[in-house]
Amino acid sequence: MVGGGGIGSGEGGKEYPGKLTAKVFVACVVAGCGGLIFGYDIGISGGVTSMPSFLKQFFPSVYKKEELDVGSTNQYCKFNSETLTMFTSSLYLAALAASLVASHITKLCGRRMSMILGGSLFCLGAVLNAAANNVLMLILGRIFLGIGIGFTNQSVPIYLSELAPYKYRGSLNMIFQFTITIGILFANLLNYFFAKIEGGWGWRLSLGFAVVPALIFIIGSFFLPETPNSLIQRGRLEEAKERLLAVRGIPNVDEEFNDLVAASDASAKIKDPWWNLMKRKYRPQVTFAILIPFFQQLTGMNVIMFYAPVLFKTIGFGNNASLMSAVISGLVNCLSTLVSIATVDRVGRRKLFLEGGAQMFICQIVITIAIALKFGTSGNPGVLPKGYAISLVVFICIYVAGFAWSWGPLGWLVPSEIFPLEIRSAAQSINVSVNMIFTFFIAQIFLQMLCSFKYGLFIFFACFVVVMNVFIYFFLPETKGIPIEEMARIWRQHWYWKRFVPAEDDPTTKGNIEMRKA
Ligand code: BGC
């Protein structure tokens, strides 16, 4: 079957014993808190950059432009400002560079080290931002925030996928996305209250509060166990075995342990993982490391996340109503992620991807038609009837839900589970870098796009959603229920990818193949 790309989970493969122990669950929740800092930043930036006192102090020209623009009727172009979007998106460039450095630290010093470093640098950035009295401090702070996010996003998804028993890997990994959505929601709510502070220093609180999620994450990370995979990779075999016994909660973990050692031995032969990524046999993994984050950003979700208040204002809500609607979509984002956590290890990744994509596509078309009918190309809706505006919010929320149970969490889960140990750290950095480049790109060009594409903006993203659904349908094999160090076989059994992957290359099945031959 060509389109299936699906391999029944566990088919013909190994099934390591092991329970979901309280230890693993708590460790995954603590590590998953890394998503809080990323989410907090996504949620806080848009709100802060719309606070007049913040603009007046750091971006006076933007402030003046917005003041002068009050009477403008073209809603599409009202908020277009390059300086401001540059401020928002500069962080993503820092994160991109940092994730490449983090790749070495995660590999050589362990996943935990990158997590602790990530949280600490983020914390430093938050303090600099809260205390900023010039643009330099502000930008420097944002660079540290970005570096922190680069380290965290590089290490946490790997940590979760390695520590989780394979049958629960999907749900446990998605805790990361769940905390991202909590961070976004928490930030939106705080902005809402801090913006009202008399005296105009509320932005300091908004930016400074980022230390709270950062401290939760740093303190938690100190108590985390390192993953057995990472211990083995660094030659600490005995410790790794004890760790595996403790986290799996069973008296015998020999089979899994031996496979981890085999994977690590194979990976030790590889001197330069970056150069290695170019090899033909890694073509499938590298393709996904690039395309999954690219497509995730091209769903257009961050248009809503960064600019929800602006977007809702554009479609006719007042100031407070816009923020409230943004909070509602934030809540939908958060709750819908739970749907994915509850189902991903039963229905699999492919079905969630395809359903979420279809749902987003339908909403994007409806939203485009609704905006086109009322705003036309002039961008002047006159008075938007209440029912009309509410229906628009409802469709935006259904769209957000579609993303939240598909591309949101799966965009972090799937890359973290498909890379073999020898390229895992480097490939995950590619995943984070591509994610950051396109987050940057969307943040940078959205206001420009709204101004030039007008209501056609959502059609642009809808076209990508169609392409990504077709891509997933034909090219993504199902990864549900397959142990992480045994993932090589999904490519060998896939109608397209099998041409890239030689059978003898999988260290953990080598024995099986030889036995079968005998
Ligand atoms: C994405 C972010 C996005 C967030 C929304 C994450 O998976 O990487 O770019 O803002 O989901 O919930």
Automatic annotation (TrEMBL):
Lineage: Eukaryota, Viridiplantae, Streptophyta, Embryophyta, Tracheophyta
GO cellular component assignments: membrane
TM ranges: 24-44, 84-102, 114-132, 138-160, 172-195, 201-224, 286-310, 322-344, 356-376, 388-408, 429-449, 455-476
NCBIfam families: SP
Subcellular location: Membrane
Residue ranges of domain Major facilitator superfamily (MFS) profile in the record: 27-480
Pfam families listed in its UniProt record: Sugar_tr
The organism of origin for this protein: Escallonia herrerae
Stated name of the protein: Major facilitator superfamily (MFS) profile domain-containing protein
Keywords, alphabetical: Membrane, Sugar transport, Symport, Transmembrane, Transmembrane helix, Transport
Coiled coil stretches, renumbered: none
CDD domains registered for this protein in UniProt: MFS_STP
Membrane association type: Multi-pass membrane protein
